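Forum: Protein Structure Q&A
Topic: Joint prediction for protein chains with partners

I've read a bunch of threads here and the consensus seems to be that you should model interacting components together rather than docking separate models afterwards. I'd like to see that in practice. Below is the full input, 822 residues plus whatever partners are listed. Could one of the regulars post the assembled result?
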Amino acid sequence: MTLYLPRTTTSEITEALTAERHSIGGGALNMVLTLIVVTDEADHYDAVRAATEAGREHPSRILALIRRDPGSEPSIDAEIRRPGTAGPGEAILLRLYGALGDHPGSVVTPLLVPDSPVVAWWPGVGPQHPAADPVGRLAHRRITDALRAADPVGDLLGRIRNYEPGDTDLTWTRLTPWRSLLASTMDQPVGWVESAEVAGEPDYPSADLLAAWLSDQLEVRVERKYSDGPGITGARLITEQGDISLQRKDGRVATLARFDQPVQSVALARRRASESLAEELRRLDADEIYERTAKHMAAFLDRREEPA
Amino acid sequence: MKEPVMPGAIPNPLRSELDRRLPRIAGPSVLVLFGVTGDLARKKLLPAIYDLANRGMLPPGFGLVGFARRDWADQDFAAEAHQAVREHARTPFREDVWRQLSEGLRFVAGELHDDAAFDELARTVRQLDADRGTGGNYAFYLSLPPKLFPTVVKQLKRSNLAESEAAAWRRVVIEKPFGHDLQSARELNAVVDDVFPPHSVFRIDHYLGKETVQNIMALRFANTLFEPLWNRNYVDHVQITMAEDIGVGGRAGYYDGIGAARDVIQNHLLQLLALVAMEEPVTFSADAIRAEKEKVLSAVELPAELESGTARGQYAPGWQGGEHVKGYLAEEGIPDDSTTETYAAMKLGVSSRRWAGVPFYLRTGKRLGRRVTEVALVFQRAPHQVFNSTDVEDLGQNALVLRIQPDEGVTLRFGSKVPGAAMEVRDVTMDFAYGQSFTESSPEAYERLILDVLIGDPPLFPRQEEVELSWRILDPVEEFWAKQGRPEQYDSGSWGPRSGHELLARDGRQWRRP
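Posted by a regular:
Agreed with the consensus. Here's the joint model:
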């Protein structure tokens, strides 16, 4: 069931939500967090769908902020999708007209689920300083996606300079399967790792983050190689006993070759937005490993860009 | 600051406790599944293994070997497994994941007493080591009736599968029932113990893999709200219920002679009791938790009079769920004069400072009102009421209910004023529902348990001591019942026999209607 409230106010929205709860009678508010999606008319459909799918694992109140014509009279159009319409959480689409678009915080504040964490997500191009953004300021966790920017690596680097605990980027989240597989190859003794390589599309920040992570954790030199993709196409650990190489050409299945073992194929599919988002929502504290890795990457890339 | 690491050493430099995105992944290993054609394997184990693979928790070097008395080749087994996964897996089917998994599928056909079949099994797993890099780590899952364990265990020993080389491990997984009394539990253990050291034996009680059961510890020990009330000063009594709406069905052959108490109370209900009644473990390690569970199980005492402190029954024909169902004695494969109980209830005490004088009522049965498992802590009434007795007439005792299945969650019942001019207090319910929100992607109990076996993480598996302690509790009751003739009949679809209700009525209490 969807309820449309044109030209409305936040108190009318709150009233509608409360009336809803009363009409069902009893029942606890099972929502574990508020997820604010800052988006636009073009993107909001996919974004809300991904958020709703992630909401199956984390029942949440999704507030989608859609900025409309900045020149018109300030007003809000609201669309309330009730719990059960699409998963256990509820979704509220808020279209903000006029100057109100510059003050989204005032719209969102009364609608946050009491006492529970707030997560902000920019499915499109995110702000350069998320923690200072009017919506980001309200959130415990701020999710951006550098891949959507025109210059993804530059976009991520800019944001890393403004890093504050709670920031995270989906280019990091998409890496988890790679990192997890690489980490598991080192659960068995491999001897010293002497160096490493990471190959992937140019302008693909995840590949740079993977290189930075390996270099930071293993304290070795990591070479970043370029390929035609899709995404990351390979990683190689060069150890004193031989190579461990993980190659993925088609974005779906990887082959793992290890010096002391037969070659194996591993399903390593590229992740959908909802999967990445669900992972982000699993932990809401600051991700210290991301911070270290991102800063390491920034230092590395800065060094490289300086003329020798 | 990060400490200097030596790459390639333990601990793995790519893992950090700060890095909580990386899931626990099992190391290279082979899982050998005996009884692979059984219902459990098809409905639970094979789908759970696929789900683990789909979540990226199985290593690339993983092999799954089925062993059964079928004339199958590897492909036939793969086809069967594919079917089982398609029908019963919880995560979406992905061709790539399936292909990865199916490359490591093998099947060995043979009888359990056939030496040649086990030699073939030994060859197969060693070949998997060579082909898939499974590292010589084998887990043997005996999804078989316990009477076959001795044969399998001896065969594993004979074919040199039980001993491991160097750093490789061997683990054996057994399912309940762990014997049918103390004596047989010890004999069974002796058989397994003879070949596998105790830390390699994983006893699966799938209840302990359930999220809601693990949540009992989180609820008690991570919060401040409940623990102060969790004792005899506030708790009046505790009710632990596991009710099934189905009858004995296809399990007749196994069930008759075993009965409800051995089938459910000995393992599931006493484990729940242990988790609810135990003291806080010193740490969250397997040994510390088991130590506390063993302490509380050894403090459990039976009622002085078994006659008035226990109840049993057999379901009679009746109407349930909109259809007429047969009584227990009319079920196929059950003798007309069977004295096996399909309903069992008992009142237990826990002799500790925390619980002295607080009765724990346990009940389980088939063909009861509905399928439900829950633990209810019923609190004492307020010692003094400022309200008139008429105002609080509708006020019951406060209760905290841990709903284990099917509607997983926690309920708190307390009194609240009825809106209006009069002062009237009535019970209301505060509800936290797990089920509906998390079912889609929360792991199935078997997934969690299989992963724990492959990783070698034992906290969720009962030790032999716990099994023996539970039998020590149950054996006198079973001996008493054996002398009592036939159990009382109760209507199918009701909440059990009259004696079951009287068990609480004698103490001025009544069962909750779950």
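The first strand of chain A starts at residue 2 and ends at 8.
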